[in-house]
Structure prediction request, 242 residues.
Amino acid sequence: MTDTSNAPTTTNSETRTVQAGRVQLAYRTWGGGEGVPVVLLHALGEDGEDWRGPLLSHLSAEHRLYAPDLTGHGASDWPGAYGLEQQRDDLAAFLDALALDRVALVGHSYGAILAYLLAQEQPSRVARLVLEEPAPLRPLAVPLEVPERPAGRLLFDWEVKVRFTQERNSPEPDWWEQLADITSPALLVAGGPESHLSQRDMELMAERMPDARMVTVEGGGHLVHEERPREFAATVGAFLAE
Prediction:
């Protein structure tokens, strides 16, 4: 971590950095509407660039959009410690550093998990919650194998994957129970049978949240915003506009 101040600094024409508690995070920002700020949280192994596409053009007229590289990814710090609660707290520190008191969170996969962990920890801070293909944090019938690092250069710290696999196998019970503490309206976007995740589990997650519903974008699979980008953008935009 090279910058100890909270003032954002520009690293190129599109990417900025900000000190967020223990880490320095890179992020991009677009738009400037008067609607609630929207924070876009990418999947494991991706970065904020993953959100480029119809969603940005669909939302940027009404909302200021922020897309950070999560801790251990892309141009953000790789501190070596990546527990889900640490990642959640890094996200909260990112919001603090940019004075974003109340936001809409849009998360995909791993980013969706961080979004709902923050929404249950700080419910008043989340105005609306969009979870694209989230995994439930409950013990798995067949535990996942902790993977070995692949050869070559990676765009993220492999320890993120290792730690996440360990926590998927032995999740904290509160992570499932406290879905009931999420007070914001929530939309779960499922990709249908092409996804490797259980669609029934997503239905159970939606049922557990007080104000949630699930929609299925057929043919989206696990990558709805990539496989069905216009349908995804329209679905998210309509939900945020409610």
About this structure: The longest helix spans residues 84-97. The beta strands are 9-10, 15-20, 23-30, 38-41, 65-68, 103-108, 126-132, 186-190, 212-216. The helical segments are 54-59, 84-97, 110-121, 158-169, 173-177, 199-208, 224-227, 229-241.
